[in-house]
Amino acid sequence: MSSPELDPPSLYAAREPIFPKRVKGRFRNLKWVVMAVALAIYYVMPWIRWDRGPSMPDQAVLVDLANRRFFFFWIEIWPHEFYFVAGLLVMAGLGLFLFTSALGRVWCGYACPQTVWTDLFILVERWIEGDRNARIRLQRQKWDAQKIRLRAAKWTVWLIIALLTGGAWIFYFTDAPTLLRNLLAGQAHPVAYTTMAILTATTFVFGGFAREQICIYACPWPRIQAAMMDEDTLTVAYREWRGEPRGKSNVRHRSPAVAEAAEATSHAAGPVAGGKYPPVPYPGVPTGVGGPIPANSAGDCIDCMACVNVCPMGIDIRNGQQMECITCALCIDACDEIMDKIGKPRGLIDYMALKDETAERAGAAPKPVWKHVLRPRTLLYFTLWAGIGMALIVALFIRSPLELNVSPVRNPLFVTMSDGAIRNTYEVRLRNKQHETRAFSFDVEGADELVVAIEGAPSGVVDVPADETLSRRLYVTAPAGSPLALAETTSLDLVVQDETDGTTATVATVFHGKGE
Hints:
Layout: H1 26-44, E1 61-64, E2 69-72, E3 75-77, H2 82-103, H3 106-110, H4 113-129, H5 132-140, H6 145-171, H7 176-185, H8 190-210, H9 212-218, H10 221-228, E4 235-238, H11 240-243, H12 256-268, H13 306-309, H14 330-341, E5 349-352, H15 354-361, H16 369-373, H17 376-398, E6 402-408, E7 415-416, E8 422-432, E9 438-445, E10 451-454, E11 461-464, E12 468-478, H18 483-486, E13 489-498, E14 504-512
Antiparallel strand pairs: 1-2, 2-3, 4-5, 6-8, 7-8, 8-12, 9-11, 9-13, 10-12, 13-14
Helix pairs in contact: 1-4, 2-17, 4-6, 4-8, 6-8
């Protein structure tokens, strides 16, 4: 028999639904733009057409798993060129380190797929059920006809978005128009339907119900980000020295004169205070940029909870930096709006670094933003990122449209012909990266006495179909008594030439002779 005193505390906490309030401002507008661009790229990209010849789908972006190739407009990545993919992954990691070091979790707040689709689902929820207060009332309301109707409408739209999301993903792996017709006709491969169903379900659950739980519990980045941030990292923070003590009694009567004076002093700081925070926060309170606040002075925070009500993670930024914060800056927009209404300067909640917070408390001006961003750590990340990017670009432009692999047959090393000539055999693999059939010829560079013959090609020319690899045996013969026939080994270069445009590829190998 157990008792409350002996039972261990539960490690499970039930999720409290979060209903973010709509807010307007520069950061909210930036999030709208990022969301629109990200969704447009994701949904539209598979439908962009690009001529790839008769043997391939005319699709600009295509992951061809059957032939293990990746197409991105004019760029084609073959299986042996996986170093391009590895390089892009390294660049993505370094880019994440760079942005986190400079601006905190800006990736999480603006461009992470979980954030983008959650924003879209919240937009639909707000459109159907209303803003924060209306959604809270509906949540507490008993199930009746109205609640069923609103929830059914919301879930239906969510399901359509999730279905389009899952469908868009599989369109990247084959010709999109053809796959769409097969899906609608019930003739697509079961793998397509299965993948689409899984992605539809995960999108519906993650964007509609899990939301911030994915960021807090499923994503490892909140726990890793601390290693990427330091006291110079710009992140969303609350100016406690300016906002405390908080309370409803801190609200001043709004008048055009007070608002105009506050705005004027906010811009009058200029370079003296970093061009952002005024020497006098608002008329009549001579507290300087920071510094100690008089005992009888009230803080700017009126405890309106606007910053909490708009937060998609449901946290209070006034409690300091927290693991759950995704640096979306919506609390900045909400607070700035309140400050405008009560005639006080903006910036009570803002992007700031720990060094700035310490300096402002002491009455000093904050450092310019560029000094926070351009520091040794971020410059190192950017140098590594740019270096890998440049290396990939160079490798992309210097690669040949054809590739030749040559392996000497070693059993036997050579064959003595009836007339005394010495013949070596080579296994040749020729890859044609062009999107049309090309004719190729072989030769040996710098050894005119050698005779080259290709298995199954009496003319010495072979046709290689578009985007395919041809494997053939190549015979190189040295006349009897020639230096190459008598020497033990001789280095030589095998050359393949595209008969259409003259492109060549060269491979170094050896010729085995009698060794006399």
